Amino acid sequence: MKYSHSIKRKKTKKIQIGNIYVGGDSPITVQTMTNTLTHDIDATLEQISQIEQEGCDIVRVSVPDEKSSQALKKIIPEINIPLVADIHFHYKRALEAAENGAHCLRINPGNIGSKDKVREVVEAAKQNKIPIRIGVNAGSLEKTILEKYKSPTAEALFESAKLNIKLLEDLNFDNFKISVKASNVFTAVESYRMLSNFCEYPLHLGITEAGSYFSGSIKSSIGLGLLLYDGIGDTVRVSLSDHPTQEVKVGFEMLKSLNLRDYGVTIISCPSCARQQFDVIETVKSVEKKLSHIKKPITVSIIGCVVNGPGEATMTNIGITGGGNNTHMVYVDGEKSHRIQNEDLVEYLVETIEDKVEQIHHLK
User: Fold this and answer.
1) Alpha-carbon Rg of the chain, whole angstroms?
2) Contact 68, 38 (CB under 8 A)
3) What is the pLDDT of residue 363?
4) Is the pLDDT of residue 92 over 60?
5) Cα(8)–Cα(345) distance, rounded to whole angstroms?
6) Residue 73: is its pLDDT beyond 60?
7) CA 156, 158, 164, 167 torsion: positive or negative?
């Protein structure tokens, strides 16, 4: 069940990365990046498998050397999601990655080198029918732009993006998406807004080097949330100093909160107070953990008393409120269904929610 508000997304050019579309009317995709050595094939495949289990749409891997680009030939046939090869400095790695099956090339033209080298990368992308992501980053702007603006301002990132767009367009290539990432939220948001007003290419959103799981999630949610609410953005990566699966979880939670993706269990729960008739906090923690395997969308409300519980329950698939004497009212699809008493609340909720997911899936 959903709230009625919806965000009107800006219509952008649609591109294809493997079997996934980005831009246009396609769903906003969630990506992450492996932190294994790519040439350690077993470790990289294991991490990508974990990422896939979380529902990730696209994965990016570093390709800093020839061992890594060669490893792609063994990695790509074993995975189920598109792979983006992340290239810095060494343009030949991009050529090798394209030949070895990468579904997209991520380059920063500012550090790839001469226009001739960029031309070779573009030709490799054309020959292999794959897109490019232009990755403008506040930490690696062109020297001439930094000299002009004195620091990586939003205007500096925007100018770099414009130059790189023109560079690829002059090479008769328009199969690309673009990002203008900064670790400063204000800089990133302003540069993306300028870029969105300037072009129709799909935008890859991110607050780069956002920090630890806790602070980085908040920072990313503020920055990307502002942009997504304005209808800007076609694919997102939450950059955290944590395991890539955490980036995927935060990315989906962010999109869910804005009704931009349906995914997994959405729990509405109270912070608890003296009115609570059961331990809401521990119940929610346990239920959330036990239902982490569910990727199909379902909404659940867990409220400790009858003040807000009935109202929230009318907007969820499964709802429960505390009523005193270990008695709880259960709501199904917004309607009162039945009371339970002296049940193991966590196990009851988990079983009820799992049954409801199967019912919803079967009805579809």
Assistant:
1) 23
2) yes
3) 55
4) yes
5) 40
6) yes
7) negative
**Is there a contact between 363 and 346 (Cβ–Cβ < 8 Å)?**
no
Which distant-in-sequence residues (6+ apart) come within 8 Å of 196 by Cβ? Answer: 10, 203, 230, 232
The predicted model scores a pTM of: 0.91
Q: Which pLDDT score, from 0 to 100, does residue 4 have?
A: 47
Q: SS3 letters for the chain?
A: CCCCCCCCCCCCCCEEECCEEECCCCCCEEEEECCCCCCCHHHHHHHHHHHHHCCCCEEEEECCCHHHHHHHHHHHHHCCCCEEEECCCCHHHHHHHHHCCCCEEEECHHHHCCHHHHHHHHHHHHHHCCCEEEEEEHHHCCHHHHHHHCCCCHHHHHHHHHHHHHHHHHCCCCCEEEEEECCCHHHHHHHHHHHHHHCCCCEEECCCCCCCHHHHHHHHHHHHHHHHHCCCCCEEECCCCCCHHHHHHHHHHHHHHCCCCCCCEEEEECCCCCCCCCCHHHHHHHHHHHCCCCCCCEEEEEECCCCCHHHHHCCCCEEEEECCCCEEEEEECCEEEEEEECCCHHHHHHHHHHHHHHHHHHHC
How far is it, in rounded angstroms, from Cα 280 to Cα 282? 6
Domains of the chain, each with CATH number or no CATH: 15-257 (3.20.20.20), 265-363 (3.30.413.10)
Q: Per-residue pLDDT for 329 more than 50?
A: yes
